[in-house]
Amino acid sequence: MSDLNICVLPGDGIGVEVMGAARAVLSTLEKRFGFRLAAEEHPGGAAYWRETGREMPQGAWEAARSADAILFGSMGLPDVRYPDGTEIAPHLKMRVDFDLFAGVRPIRRLPNTPAVLASPRAADIDLVIIRELTEGLFASRGKGVVIDDREARDTLVITRATSEKLFDFAFDLARRRKAKGSAGLVTCVDKANVFVSMAFFRKIFDERARNFPDVEARHHYVDAAALDLVRKPWVFDVMVMENMYADILSDVGGGIVGGMGLAPSAEIGLEHALFQPAHGSAPDIAGQGLANPTAMLLSTAMMLEWLGHRHGRERLVEAADALDAAVERAFAEGAAFPAEIGGPHGTAEVTRAVMDRI
Amino acid sequence: MSDLNICVLPGDGIGVEVMGAARAVLSTLEKRFGFRLAAEEHPGGAAYWRETGREMPQGAWEAARSADAILFGSMGLPDVRYPDGTEIAPHLKMRVDFDLFAGVRPIRRLPNTPAVLASPRAADIDLVIIRELTEGLFASRGKGVVIDDREARDTLVITRATSEKLFDFAFDLARRRKAKGSAGLVTCVDKANVFVSMAFFRKIFDERARNFPDVEARHHYVDAAALDLVRKPWVFDVMVMENMYADILSDVGGGIVGGMGLAPSAEIGLEHALFQPAHGSAPDIAGQGLANPTAMLLSTAMMLEWLGHRHGRERLVEAADALDAAVERAFAEGAAFPAEIGGPHGTAEVTRAVMDRI
Ligand SMILES: CC(C)[C@H](C(=O)O)[C@@H](O)C(=O)O
Ligand SMILES: CC(C)[C@H](C(=O)O)[C@@H](O)C(=O)O
Prior knowledge:
2 copies of one chain form a homodimer.
Chain A: E1 5-11, H1 14-33, E2 38-41, H2 46-52, H3 60-66, E3 69-74, H4 90-97, E4 102-108, E5 126-132, E6 145-147, E7 151-159, H5 160-179, E8 185-190, H6 196-209, E9 216-221, H7 222-231, E10 238-241, H8 243-256, E11 264-268, E12 273-277, H9 294-311, H10 314-332, H11 347-355
Helix pairs in contact in A: 1-9, 1-10, 1-11, 5-6, 7-8, 9-10, 10-11
Bound molecules: 3-isopropylmalic acid (2 copies).
One 3-isopropylmalic acid (IPM) sits between chains A (87, 89, 92, 247) and B (193-194, 223).
């Protein structure tokens, strides 16, 4: 019996396939570690919108809100749009509606994946980008204006309330990583030399840093940070930044470790949390069994870890560690070399290789 | 005798040293190709501000405005700030005041420079990023607001007038590059799936594209473009984007070809043009003869080419080509391997190696 429940939203395209992988692995973990999560699956996304004119069925949104965690595949299709031309993205609304202010994007190189950076040090890349997810330039979503077909404006908003929560989250993460051997460093990425909002962001960062004397706090301008992510990513541990900057830099981060099929993510608030691979719905390869489930499986491990810590369930934390280690080992032993990054293995083989190692 | 004059602004730190290299090379070129540019040099920048309370001497600004081109080193020092805490950057004012709307950042790999990307295809990287330089998020410079120490805002502005000029510039460049063997492709980098201003930017791009049927026009979201710059930069030819996006992506571009000491740039308007290396004043290595003059020399070649085309002076275009080829050859022959990227050569040796090959 379980008192924790998760809302499962596979979404569009390969979201459905990688979610299949996640659910198979979850049930292996449930047996192996003796826990059960009540999972309720709901449709939703661009294909659903095309059929029904709604993003998600009635009730699915409330199910997501009341769940202990949301496990998310991918929503959106290039040829399905709202009347104003923007993408079908209920996910963006969830970030705001559920106050998922901290986007967590671990950037870690898996064994045996083709090197993107030439430096041998790139094998040890292990950093985390924290993306503010509810404001910044994205505060302007749905609010930008065009005046007379002559000029358009969008406004970037930084609030003290969100920034304080965000920085505390980042420092806290750095402290926990330090306990496991990382540098214990948070880098605030901004453009305080040009923008008032960014100077404000930095000022709040400096204020919050004082409560974490055991963690080192540094600043980096966003352009220089992008350069250093490519040239020497090993100088970073935890990076924290505004929504739009992080949207870009976390893809640079995904790039240096081999692409989005390997990039898990979590979107965390004080009340809710959503876990999803950082890749999109990839309709070009959907339905062919070629999707790389790695990012989805690592996101699932992040969910188990978060649930375990939040609810004091040691078994969930153990299951998370086991899943993470199984992925790492499947790659290290050459049993998982996804087609998406040039290897021979489709969704089923990668999933099987991971399950066999749990 | 010369009727073309350039305003020379060495600025701070290594700006002074690399400008020395540029002037030495320019005088070699003048002799070899039989032309003369009247060069007027002015101080200015952060050190000047510290001493005088002014950014530049009276008259220097007007000299810059009335020159046929501005050759710029680097201005700014980390510990010298305006009272509001932002950097001493007369350069940012010039962009707006002289309407230098098109920032041109060639991303090209020089021979024998240490590989940053592992792929062998990275040896052939040759693309150009066009950065809008007068508006976008930077329209908010000096205009952002903080409300009650609670919330801060900066506004991104896209105008039709500037965007049209910008896209025409990009398509025109792609057309000229196509004549020399490039793909003939312009990629508009935006976030039209989320922001009204970016959908407006893209719409104008599509409109202007129709006047250049011989050039291919594509779109790319900014996050995906950042990823592809790292994973497969060879898919790009000319990229064009909003000011802030380009500030970040052009540093990613600089990163994949070895860093800012190799990255030239031009800032072009309809009336004025400024040429400068993309790196900063690097006070940590200033005065030691260690600065890498390559970016400055390649920027000087861009200036000669631009002046030559604009004023119909074939000799200037030839001098530009000769300088560019001399840099390329100095690297190919191992005579220029700057200390900044791990080689043995300081400013003087690199400069000498290039001069010897003109
Ligand atoms: C689909 C898009 C709107 C979204 C974003 O920009 O947040 C995506 O890029 C992401 O990073 O989750
Ligand atoms: C110094 C800084 C304000 C400037 C900018 O952001 O434009 C620099 O990064 C550049 O790219 O020229």
